[in-house]
Design a protein that fits this description.
5% of the residues lie in helices and 37% in strands. With 408 residues, it is mainly beta. The chain has one domain (4-21, 51-325): Neuraminidase (6 Propeller), CATH 2.120.10. Strand 7 and strand 8 form a beta hairpin. The relative contact order is 0.16.
Length: 408
């Protein structure tokens, strides 16, 4: 997601393309969809709290009501889910081992996943870029202090694996537990532009893939086990950890706790941003395809037929240029959002609520949530009640929430 080509002044919108692409999106992505803006507004959440580069917001699933907010620099904060809270407590500080640079801003602490049995075992997992070696992605297990639930133990780190990245960008970094109890890890294609290593369609590499790991067991030579029903376990030359492939740079992914659907947003390059519903063994196209459209790397051989995203949108002023994947809303405070997938765009700062009908396999609505500041949308997260939050890196790093009704 955090690409220099996308985040800085060099990413200028091309007006000539905007007109053309809006015609295409009406034909491909927006046909027969409800697009009326929702009567929902955005307000600042926890107004006393600012956290530098807030990269994730989540809960531990332990019925404690706490929220955890991670800084890309390597610190995780914990606080009660109380709007009046004045200060967040440091849950874990590993800034001594996390590498982050503003000029290489797709590195750092990028993802967290609390074990489904966290309340009993105190385990959680982090994905971060290590300082000890340039461009080294790291997946680790940590444990909470048994004497203090608001403190994790830095010395408890157990490294599950490391992955040397060829470039600083396209690190992915989303990690989530699925309803099956396995840990899913979203990885980018390795970086730069045009998938120079042709990683997306190459099953012999982890780059451009979603991995599926059994972190409750270990097998010889690994600090984890490979689930026996992973789709490529018995395929010669394929990495057995792979669950799905053909991704450029996943920024963010989530399982809907009710439908169990696996939502994955993939950041595009030249023209299109996309949202996928991912299935085991699926090929989601990169770098043969960008969104629902052919890409320039057509000389590759696809191991299996490609699957189009359920939705894509073009690079222009009406939409944006870098998708920030979100959450399916299952809270109670904003009935207008019930069941909708909330997502945004980092460049335009715009927000939408998308609805998908599983029976017809069609997007039935993609409605904008009007937000006048339109600040860069960094990440989405939720609390134990299903209320959804998102963050920005502006003004010191802030959290926002959704509220029923229009601005007064």
């Amino acid at each position: 997601m955090f690409q220099s080509v996308r985040f800085f002044a060099s990413t200028l919108f091309v007006a000539a393309f905007s007109c053309c692409s809006m015609t295409m999106v009406r034909e491909s992505a927006a046909q027969e969809m409800e697009q009326t803006p929702l009567k929902v507004r955005v307000e600042r959440a926890f107004p006393s709290i600012t956290i530098e580069r807030p990269i994730f917001v989540t809960h531990a699933g332990d019925k404690s009501g706490r929220l955890f907010v991670g800084s890309q620099y390597g610190t995780i904060y914990v606080m009660p889910n109380d709007e009046s809270v004045e200060e967040a407590e440091v849950f874990l500080d590993i800034t001594d081992r996390v590498m982050y640079k503003d000029q290489e801003n797709e590195e750092g602490l990028l993802g967290i996943a609390f074990h489904p049995d966290f309340k009993k075992n105190g385990e959680f997992f982090l994905y971060y870029t290590a300082k000890k070696e340039a461009h080294l992605s790291t997946l680790s297990r940590f444990r909470v202090d048994p004497k203090n639930p608001n403190k994790a133990l830095p010395e408890s780190e157990e490294i599950l694996w490391t992955l040397k990245q060829p470039f600083w960008n396209h690190n992915g970094g989303s990690i989530v537990f699925g309803p099956d109890g396995y840990l899913y890890v979203g990885l980018g294609d390795g970086g730069k532009a045009n998938d120079p290593l042709l990683s997306g369609q190459d099953l012999s590499t982890w780059f451009g893939k979603i991995l599926r790991l059994d972190v409750n067991n270990k097998e010889e030579g690994k600090a984890y086990a490979v689930p026996k029903d992973n789709p490529f376990v018995n395929q010669s030359g394929a990495k057995p950890e792979i669950y799905a492939y053909g991704f450029r740079n996943i920024w963010r992914m989530t399982f809907d706790p009710q439908s169990k659907d696996f939502w994955v947003a993939d950041v595009g390059q030249d023209l299109w941003e996309e949202i996928n519903l991912v299935e085991k063994g699926g090929n989601y196209g990169w770098s043969l395809r960008e969104g629902k459209h052919d890409f320039k790397n057509q000389g590759q051989k696809a191991p299996s037929p490609t699957i189009d995203p359920i939705f894509d949108y073009p690079h222009n002023e009406s939409w944006g240029k870098s998708i920030t994947g979100g959450q399916v809303y299952h809270g109670t405070k904003v009935p207008s959002l019930a069941g909708a997938y909330l997502y945004g765009d980092y460049v335009s700062g715009k927000l939408w609520a998308l609805r998908y009908d599983a029976k017809s396999k069609k997007v039935t609505a993609n409605q904008q949530i009007i937000w006048p500041p339109s600040l860069p949308v960094v990440t989405f997260g939720e609390d134990e009640n299903g209320e959804v939050y998102f963050t920005t890196v502006t003004s010191g790093g802030r959290l926002y929430k959704f509220v029923e009704g229009l601005n007064p």
